[in-house]
Input
Amino acid sequence: MAMLIDGKKISSQIKDEIKAEVLTLKEKGEEVTLAVVLVGEDPASQVYVRNKKRACEYVGIKSLSFELPAETTQEELLLLVEKLNHDPAVNGILVQLPLPSHIDEDAVIKAIDPNKDVDGFHPMSVGALSIGQKGYVSCTPAGIIELMKRSGIEMDGKHCVIVGRSNIVGKPMAMLMLRENATVTVTHSHTKNLKEITKQADILIVAIGRAKFITADYVKDQAVVIDVGMDHDENGKLCGDVDFDSVQKVAGAITPVPGGVGPMTIAMLMKNCLTSLELK
Output
């Protein structure tokens, strides 16, 4: 039976470390402030925003909340972003995605000051990551690296297969694994012989948004399996992209859903908020 990689426990450790750092900063008269912008009433986004506010409260980071109606125009949103860019009291800006369909997400991401881009989505943040320079790293991939390091999982020299090539997880994940000296293969919806490729992985990272898609026959014996998915099964129960029950019998280590990668994303956002002080 696979070792369970406990994201809840590890994220709590990270948040406690950040809490101590924030306290030290406050004693020196420095405060970290995160501005969170939510447009519309997407239920999943509302949950994420609530969790982010709760995490800020716990670690001692001040959070400013801007909850805008769904009919907010792109121009109005960009004006708010511009105002926050120029506010010296705001260290980090987070615009919750997805945005309503009439707003160009790309334009909004590019409008955020790269020094305040705590989500790590700005082209300058992505560029810095690709050439190994200092900057913000997308929270989910950064959280996965931290999960593995703190669980004693060796990445150096291992073959890592990533299923999914999104800008938010798949691509930055590949860059981070290269930074850890892994050999990386990125697969996606057009990949031929997916099963043959995933079965070669020492570390398999799955981020495709398809409930229980990866079953035991996709997984090499004793592989480390990281499930980034947040889906619902046929009974409406929360699950991942990996069929946990079958895969845990062959894997060496596995993340559960919930309680695996999810809590790490928010912990790394808090870490990025600390980085914002250095980049100020």
Summary: The chain is about 40% helix and 15% strand.
